[in-house]
Amino acid sequence: MAESSRPVLLPQNRKIRHLQGIFLRNLTFDRPRGKTIDDSAFKHSPGKVESLRENAQLHHSASSENLRPGSARRRSTNLGNATPIVRQKHLEASIDKRVADVFFSLHVEGEEEPVYISETGERSANFDFRFFELSRALDPSRVRRHQVTVKVWALKSGTWSLHLEEVVDLRRLNFLGSLIGTHFPPNCLVFHLVDGAYTLELPAKTFPPRQGAAQPTSSYNALMRLSNLEHSIQDALATQDMLKQQINDLISSHSDEHLQLTNAEDRLRLTNKYITTEQRMVRSSIQQIEQLDTSIAERRDMISQGRSLMEKTGREVDNAMDKLRNDKDQCLKLKDEIRGQRRRICEDLNTIFKIEPLPDGKPLQFQICGIHLPNAEAYGGGMLSGAQEDELSAALGHVALLTKHLELYLSVPLPYPITHCGSRSYITDNISILKDPIRDFPLYLPRGGSAAQFRFDYGWFILNKDIETLCTAQGLKVMDIRHTLPNLKYLLYVCSAGSDELPERKKGGVRGLRAGIMRSRGVACLPDDATLGSLASSRRGSVDSDVPVAGGNDLRRKMMGELGGQAEGEVDGLSQVGSLPFQEEFGKMTLRTKGMRERVG
């Protein structure tokens, strides 16, 4: 802001709206004293009077010879030998005593809140705050006042406190003109108005009167003529307005009948137009009402139809719920009967295929139908005699037949289909990546060296995997799949266990099941009498009872030819046709190879 050499505003014309900024000079926190400190007050102090009373004694004067030279005066050398760090701390402490963070606020009488709050000046003793404009922040009645209250707030020792409060009358300010070379007293406030800097602490500067030439102006007569001319113009304008009003009143009092008729016709046309518009709107509303009535009637019909349909559906749902409850009860009853029949079948299978421990044998050594079958880990794969080979093949044939029956009666599809041919049974691996001619593995000791021996071992292994699948489906955990007969014995024992009595056999069930199996294999069935006769005359397990599966390799080739069109990996067709239509959940089956005999010879 440029500093002016002399004030422009008169003292009585200084208002709050002219205030533009405030500076603070020579900030100090020392309390002002009422008078200066000098020696005149020292002798009258209470401490000095008391000291004079105590030491009021007379002493003999001493000669110059007895006088000792006075000791050297102690000088303030506290910081003479101090380190730079101590000096720096002392300097910072002395500076902190004289500087602070400061801001000010302006208050006007009648306002509780401050009308302006300045920014905060940091660590200084002289503050030049930013300029402001109060004419926009306050209403005109406030900015026309002469008095304003200035409150200066200081931050000392981490606490804000009111440091200075002054009620300033702008009319009593003294003009400074320039701040350069001016010595300000402590805590001096400098006010910047539109014409320069003012303060209360310093006396006002005197300025010589301005010397200027007289300006030429009009004469008195010319000014009077202009005044008379202005009055004449004002009278003419007033007369013109009066004449306009009189003319308008005269026209309004003497209106023409033709004009009234024209106005009436215009109003009539406008009224007819409004009537036509309203009639059109009424017809449109009537059509809309008719459409709504038709729509409401249709909706009522649809609602009635929906209600009747809903009631009908509700009755059907009630009937279906009754039927569903009956079906559920029948299903539960049928499941109980199936479980009972399975228990009975497992009990019959346990009676037919007698799996008993060997007398005077090792633990976990069993025999089936009186034929000893060693466990897979006990079988060493060494040289066996012909009788021992036949015994082993016959035992595996019984195991294959029992496993096949359990697959059908328990409705558990086996991953490796079994084809029972007595002591020449074999098992098929449709899962592994093998060539089609070598997917059948024998369950009897073949002739052909180590390769044939390995095929026999693998066939026995996947037979044990089928037994493991049956056990897993019943929730049983197999500890060692190489224990063929112990696992079967355990499975039959669990499946035949129960507290209820075993149900009786239903008549005609076996004949129909056997006929269905024969038809699925493509074998012509004999009449009922012949079938009964053949079944009655043949012994179970003999050649006559195995007529459908006789033929060995020929029958096998025939069956493989029929199943050649099926996709690789499907379950065997006999298992699909002969299985019971009850698929229950069973445990997860793994294809791990642990349990296959690895030691050969």
How many helices? The count is 12
In the CATH scheme, the class of the domain at 346-508 and 539-578 would be Mainly Alpha
> Biggest sheet, strands in spatial order?
5-1-9-10-8
Q: Given the helix and strand composition, which structural class is it?
A: alpha+beta
Main sheet summary: 5 strands, antiparallel
Q: What is the subunit organization of this protein?
A: single chain
**Secondary-structure element pattern, one letter each:** EHHEEEEHEEEEEHHEEEHEEEHHHHHH
CATH superfamily grouping of the domain at 346-508 and 539-578: Autophagy protein 6/Beclin 1
CATH architecture of the domain at 346-508 and 539-578: Orthogonal Bundle
Number of strands: 16
Q: Can you tell me the CATH topology of the domain at 346-508 and 539-578?
A: Actin-binding Protein, T-fimbrin, domain 1
Terminal CA distance: 116 Å
Query: Which ranges are low-confidence, i.e. pLDDT below 50, for 5 or more consecutive residues?
Result: 524-584, 597-601
Strand content: 5-15%
GO molecular function: SNARE binding
Family: Belongs to the ATG14 family.
Keywords: Coiled coil
GO cellular component, one term: protein-containing complex
What does this structure look like?
It is a single chain. The protein is an alpha+beta fold and 601 residues long. Helix content is 43%, strand content 12%. Among the domains are: 1-31 and 84-206, Sandwich (Immunoglobulin-like); 277-317; 346-508 and 539-578, Autophagy protein 6/Beclin 1 (Actin-binding Protein, T-fimbrin, domain 1), CATH 1.10.418. It has twelve helices and 16 strands. A hairpin with a 2-residue loop joins strand 9 and strand 10 (196-199). The chain is elongated, with a radius of gyration of 64 Å. Mean pLDDT is 79; it is low at 524-584 and 597-601.
